[in-house]
Structure formats: structure tokens, C-alpha cells
């Protein structure tokens, strides 16, 4: 047996050995098989793409309008669903307590529950909500809370097809949606146009969910305000006054909470008196603006308290009498005219004298 070298380009690569016609055996070398694409991808990791390219792609995706719309839609659906589920839970608990005691029980939300559940628990409370309203008034965002609560009353109105229901919708629209209104909520123009189109429709019936998207936008803004509220001295005063686990607040605790709102109104009244001392054109303008701000703020706060506690807390001229009497003296006869715009049908009349000057409120 002799070994013969296999000539190149003539041997068969697929056979390990071949036999010639003369009986000689040819040994062939084993050829290297090519690695398929699938085997290569599993055996060797491909080079990762550039990080700069991936970041640029993500930024371009975020800048697309469709992406922002989908994100806001998801937030809208989630926010109201969570709040609605919590309301069902609170209503169920209230019915159980009423069935057990045989009468409605004056149970409020404890601070521990608010810390656990967040804004949705705060919105279902009464006494703690007064402290949160003070914080909103102080940071000039109280319109979000007033709008949210009024829309809830609108949606819970039983006679949804009546003329009264459309009047309620018109009042909410004129107070919170119309541009340059005193309590205008910071909403996207698309949301405002959608509401305006439904309000200007010729049909008499108003869809109960006409303000649903706007209400959710207000809820999201209230979430931001609530997070800031947790780090304020007002929150600490709320915990000290209400306790941490109490679910029933007596008259003293309730009165302390309402006095917090009175403090804000006293500050507004002090601003009216301070600017009324300026006899120039700028002083007249500031006085008019501050009187209007005080007048409307007092009206909506009074309505807020009346809805929660069924009392007319500001139905007394002694609310601001102490501050007015401490500044009274006789030197001028200048009078300030109150703007005619009102948010409520009937309000108590408050008269303040400052340096012989009469301010009607």
C-alpha cells in the first residue's frame, strides 16, 4: 500500500478516504466547514450598537406628538380609575358602619390613611382637606381643587338630562375653562376646544363626562401639589391637630382647621387695607384687584366649607373685625367700589373702615 498525495482541485472534500480502481487508497484531508449565520450568532456576541445612537433614537421618539398623546391618555385613564376605585372602597365602608350603628357615622379619614393612600384619600377627607386647601391657596393653585370637586358634583347629579344639569355645566365652564377667568385651570388648548365644542352644540343634553379629561388633568396637578404639601409646616400642624390614627374629629379640631382658612382671608384683607392707603393711580388699581381677589376667594372658600360641613362659616361680620378696628382712624373720605362680578347668588355683607374710608365687601 502506497500513500499518494491528493492533488488539489481534484479530490472530493466530502469523503474522508477514496479507493482507486487499482486498489490504492487515497487519504484526503478534512476540510473546514463554514459556520452558518445562525451558529455564528449563537457562538459570538454581536457588537452592541452605539449608545449615542440609541439615546438619539429615544429622544426623537419622545419628541413625536403621537408618543406624548399616548402617554397622557394612559395617565388620564389610570388616574381617574384609581380614584374611582378608592371612592367605591370608602363608600362601602361607610355603608357598613351605618348598618352597624343604625345611623350615619361622622367618620373622617385619618392621617395614617392619607400617608398610605396619598391624594385619593385626602380628597375623600373633610378636616384634613382644609389644611390642603390652605396650602393650595398659598401657592395659588386652589382652582384645581375647586374644579375637581365641582366636576364630581356635576357627574353625581341625578337628573342628568334636565336643564339644571346644563346650567351647572355652563357655570363650571365659565368659571374654570374660559380664558382669563378668575379660577381658570391650566389646561391644554385641545382639551378646552373639546369642551367648548360640546358646550356650543345646539342640543340641550350635556354629556356627563364632558369634563372628564379636564378633571384628570387637574388631578395630576393636585398630585404634584400634594407631594409638596407633605414637606410643609402646614402638614406638621395638621398631624399635630388631627392626630395620626383618629377617624373622628371633634368641634375643636374642626374649628382649628377652619381657622387655618380664616388666616388666609385675614391676610388678603390686610392686603386690601395696605393698598387702600396709596392715593395714586397704581394704589387704586391694586386696591380694586385685591378687593376682587378677596371677594371671590371668600365666596369659593365659603362654598367649600358649606358643602363639607353644612355650615355658613363666614355668615358673621366679626370675621375680619379685629383687623379692621386696629387700623381705623379718620383722615380721608376716599371710597373704593367693589366689582359687580359674583360667584354666588347671596353673600354676607362686610364693611371695613380705614382712615375714614369705607370698603364694602
SSE blueprint and pairings:
Blueprint (H helix, E strand, L loop, with lengths): L16 E3 L5 E3 L9 H7 L7 H12 L2 H37 L9 H7 L1 H4 L4 H12 L3 H14 L7 H15 L11 H11 L12 H18 L3 H10 L8 H26 L4 H29 L11 H6 L24 E4 L2 E4 L1
Antiparallel strand pairs: 1-2, 3-4
Pfam family, one: RGS
Protein name: RGS domain-containing protein
InterPro entries: RGS, RGS_sf, RGS_subdomain_2
Attribute tags:
361 residues; mainly alpha; Regulator of G-protein Signalling 4, domain 2; two-stranded antiparallel ribbon; globular
Write a concise synopsis of the structure shown:
Residues 1-49, 323-361 are annotated as: Disordered. This protein is mainly α and 361 residues long.
Give an overview in words.
The chain has 361 residues and is mainly alpha-helical. Among the domains are: 100-237, Regulator of G-protein Signalling 4, domain 2; 268-360, no CATH class. Helix content is 58%, strand content 4%. The chain has 14 helices and four strands. It has helices at residues 37-43, 51-62, 65-101, 111-117, 119-122, 127-138, 142-155, 163-177, 189-199, 212-229, 233-242, 251-276, 281-309, 321-326, and strands at 17-19, 25-27, 351-354, 357-360. The strands form two sheets. The chain has a two-stranded antiparallel ribbon with strand order 1-2. The chain has a two-stranded antiparallel ribbon with strand order 3-4. A hairpin with a 5-residue loop joins strand 1 and strand 2 (25-27). The longest helix is centred in the first third of the chain and has 37 residues, at 65-101. It is globular and about 60 Å long. The model is unreliable at 9-28, 37-45, 47-71 and 316-361 (pLDDT under 50).
